[in-house]
Amino acid sequence: MATIAVLSQKGGTGKTTTVRTLTDVFRRVGLSVLAVDLDPQGNLSDYLDVDPEATPTIGDVLADRATLSEAIHADVVPASLNLAEAELALGGKIGRELTLKRALRSVRDRYDLVLIDCPPSLGLLTVNALVAADWALLSAEAQYFAMQGVEQATGVIELAREALNPDLALLGVILNIADMRTRHSREAFASLRTHFGEKLLDTTVRASIAYAESAERAQSIIDYRPDLGVDYLNIADELLRRLTLPGARARLADLAAEIAS
Ligand SMILES: Nc1ncnc2c1ncn2[C@@H]1O[C@H](COP(=O)(O)OP(=O)(O)OP(=O)(O)O)[C@@H](O)[C@H]1O
Ligand SMILES: [Mg+2]
Fold it and tell me: In what order do the strands lie in the sheet with 76-77?
């Protein structure tokens, strides 16, 4: 099992859309994927169409009221506002950074991949995700001050690695919600390339209003607008190469051909 935490330093960089869409793509190529919503806003749970009344949730797990297995609803661990409370309660506990890692241990054998959607801050919840993860995947939005925030996020990854999770590695950096026709996006891409080298994915996720529309319908962009969804197929391919899940890349090529036809 490989665990990937998707994070960014700020809100609205497309993290949840990335987790939602990659969950869908990886499932379609036959991988078993657990999607974990670690944001009290519960957007991932909405996008993946989990019943808003479903309990227990990740907040109950972190507060020791439920096991992780109990909080899995159709391969999604949803979040609700009680996660904010759980985060506060967690703050006073010994081993508070290790809680999610411990909880995930019990499901190790059941999944090929665990994708964790982090909240838009670099607090205790994101640290829990980074401690539980093998990989960190950074989402950076194409805007002028993108670099500044990205540096904060890499700083937190570095801290998690040094203090608590020496095996944590950077899986990649995605330039998200980009319009490469603008100089501004091209400059953001160039500065990320300088800073991250090959860790920056070659594929950028194009900006389109279709994402908001597809979210409203709880539909994957792959189905709603396959012409745009191809960005995520290419991202999935780049990630699978790094994750060394061999058979999955061939099946992804088949899926891409099927969607294109
Ligand atoms: N490629 C895209 N182009 C345009 N809009 C997008 C794209 N990806 C996501 N969005 C939209 O941008 C908004 C924020 O996306 P999303 O919720 O995925 O970001 P986030 O980083 O998870 O936000 P938060 O930090 O609040 O959790 C949503 O309305 C979403 O539909
Ligand atoms: Mg989000």
Answer: 76-77, 33-37, 113-117, 2-7, 135-141, 169-176
The encoded tokens of residue 41 equal 């806003």
The answer, yes or no, to whether any atom of ligand 1 lies below 6 A from the CB of 212, is yes
Q: Mean pLDDT score of the chain, rounded to an integer?
A: 95
Question: Which domains can be identified in the chain, with CATH numbers?
Answer: 2-248 (3.40.50.300)
Indicate if the pLDDT at residue 184 is higher than 80.
yes
Asked if residue 208 has its Cβ within 6 Å of ligand 1, the reply is yes
Q: How far apart are CA 112 and CA 120, in angstroms?
A: 26
Per-chain residues with Cβ under 5 A from ion ligand 2: 15-16, 43
Q: Residue 110: how many CB atoms within 10 A of its CB?
A: 13
Ligand nearest to the CA of 139: 1
Is the minimum distance from the CB of 11 to ligand 1 under 6 angstroms?
yes
The total of other beta-carbon atoms located within 10 Å of residue 236's CB is 26
With a threshold of 0.90, does the pTM exceed it? yes
